[in-house]
Write a structure and sequence with these properties.
Elements lengths: L1 H16 L1 H22 L4 H4 L4 E7 L4 H11 L4 E4 L1 E3 L5 E3 L2 H9 L5 E5 L11 E7 L4 H35 L1 H18 L5 H6 L2 H8 L11 H10 E7 L8 H23 L1 H7 L2 H6 L5 H31 L7 H25 L3 H18 L11 H7 L3 H14 L8 H24 L5
Parallel strand pairs: 1-2, 1-5, 6-7
Antiparallel strand pairs: 3-4, 5-6
Helix pairs in contact: 2-16, 4-6, 6-7, 6-9, 11-14, 11-15, 11-16, 11-18, 14-15, 15-16, 15-18, 15-19, 18-19
Protein name: ABC transporter permease
Keywords: Cell membrane, Membrane, Transmembrane, Transmembrane helix, Transport
Family: Belongs to the ABC-2 integral membrane protein family.
Length: 448
């Protein structure tokens, strides 16, 4: 037992001598709970629900009653409503059917609502809505659908009141319908002392009742039959702009984020092998020959990048055979994205090796940064659920651009030209990180 205690004392002493390791021991869990807490515990905007889920809305009908529905959506804290399109010279112009759909194609937003000209059904009672979407984030899609349903059911009496009055007038005839409202108004006036006949009569009919009713007066425990009735009279025409024909949409959304995380851990571990080769004296033997430090660095960089590409493609091919992710129709795009993503991840690993003095430090820094970037960059949660300042920070992580690249290649099935913006950012990250690493390797102690 004393031997074990002495060895334990030795491990504690070595740990306490490494100040960086002590710092990382507490920083890693702190940053993880800080990021997750901002998303789920209400520390973010609007009680934990960000107001940056963008929804475009277009009232094609021009009916003021339909504008009340759009106003209800604008009042939702979980949505950022867009009601016009970008025009020339930084101006804003009204939406058209074509421009509101093009906004989804151009990634200005992922969801759009159109209230068509004939939004009130001509036969029977009910309304029609058109919903366009690019549901590349399932959580985000569920939030938008829920908030839209809330707005529809809240404003449904107002939207249908005129239609119900006209329907009742057609069934009863103008004369009988007027007599019915007159008699009902007189009955209400006699029953309540404070009621004035003119005011009551003015609010007779479905439209008047809808104006008097508020959302707070509705019964919170809706009957199943009433819910079914509401669903029958609301017709939503859905147009999914991207990902409509995918066999496994859920995994297709997620696999890119996990691929980036895998590449980061794999290439970081491979770059850390530089410490093993240094300890074995391999670098000194190589440098005694006509070999420069940059030669060693670039050989490691290219090898680890190739290994990352091979492993990433293996991951995607396995997902195709096991879970029907449609990899082979987009294989060329996936290959190109994997090359750029692996190059960026390998450069990140080389940077860790260049600024660390021991393998333990490289592992600690790597764990902290990879987990933080994965959480902020969209590999775990939709970026739109985060506070605004974290959304801004996410765009400075290579995980964000890697996830966006894989989503464009797999989910949106974009061509190589459409991938240029994301790939350019990954290339810039690679060049910046490998440049810093080269400078650090020239001035650092790794090759001594």
């Amino acid at each position: 037992m004393s031997t074990i205690l002495h060895l334990l004392q030795k491990d504690i002493t070595l740990f306490l001598k490494d100040k960086t390791a002590i710092l990382l021991t507490f920083l890693v869990p702190f940053f993880v709970i800080y990021i997750v807490g901002n998303i789920f515990s209400g520390a973010g905007d609007n009680g934990g629900l960000s107001s940056n889920i963008k929804l475009a809305a277009y009232n094609e009908s021009g009916d003021p009653a339909a504008d009340t529905f759009i106003q209800a959506l604008e009042n939702e804290e979980g949505l950022h409503l867009i009601t016009d399109a970008p025009g020339p010279d930084d101006s804003r112009i009204p939406f058209t059917r074509e421009s509101i759909r093009q906004g989804i194609v151009d990634h200005h937003y992922n969801f759009a609502l159109i209230i068509p000209q004939d939004y009130l059904k001509k036969e029977g009672i009910g309304l029609r809505l058109e919903f366009l979407s690019n549901p590349k984030n399932q959580i985000e899609s569920q939030i938008v659908n829920g908030l839209m349903q809330k707005a529809v059911y809240t404003k449904l009496p107002k939207l249908l009141s005129g239609q119900l009055d006209n329907y009742q007038r057609e069934v009863m005839g103008d004369e009988k319908y007027t007599q019915f409202l007159d008699g009902l108004a007189a009955l209400v006036t006699l029953s309540y002392e404070e009621a004035e006949y003119e005011e009551v009569r003015a609010n007779m009919g479905f439209e008047g009742l809808a104006n008097m009713l508020s959302p707070d007066s509705a019964d919170s425990e809706a009957d199943n039959d009433a819910t079914a009735f509401l669903q029958d009279i609301i017709e939503v025409k859905e147009d999914q702009v991207f990902g409509k024909e995918l066999k496994n949409p859920y995994l297709t959304r997620m696999v890119g984020g996990y691929a980036i995380m895998f590449l980061l851990f794999a290439t970081t571990g491979s770059a850390a092998s530089l410490f093993e080769e240094r300890n074995d004296g391999l670098f000194l033997r190589l440098l005694s020959m006509p070999v420069k430090r940059t030669h060693i660095l670039w050989s490691k960089y290219i090898f680890n990048t190739l290994m990352g590409v091979l492993q990433a493609l293996t991951l995607f091919i396995a997902s195709s055979f096991l879970f029907n992710v449609e990899v082979f129709p987009n294989f060329l795009n996936l290959f190109v994205v994997s090359v750029f993503a692996s190059a960026a991840c390998t450069a990140f690993g080389m940077l860790l090796a260049s600024v660390s003095k021991t393998p333990q430090q490289a592992q600690g820094f790597g764990t902290l940064l990879i987990i933080s970037m994965s959480a902020m960059g969209g590999a775990w949660f939709p970026v739109s659920l985060m506070p605004e300042f974290m959304q801004m920070l996410s765009k400075f992580t290579l995980v964000y651009w890697g996830v966006e690249s894989y989503l464009a290649a797999l989910w949106e099935e974009s061509g190589l030209l459409a991938l240029i913006p994301e790939l350019s950012v990954l290339a810039a990250i690679s060049l910046a990180l490998i440049g810093i690493s080269s400078w650090r390797f020239k001035t650092g102690d790794l090759f001594r």
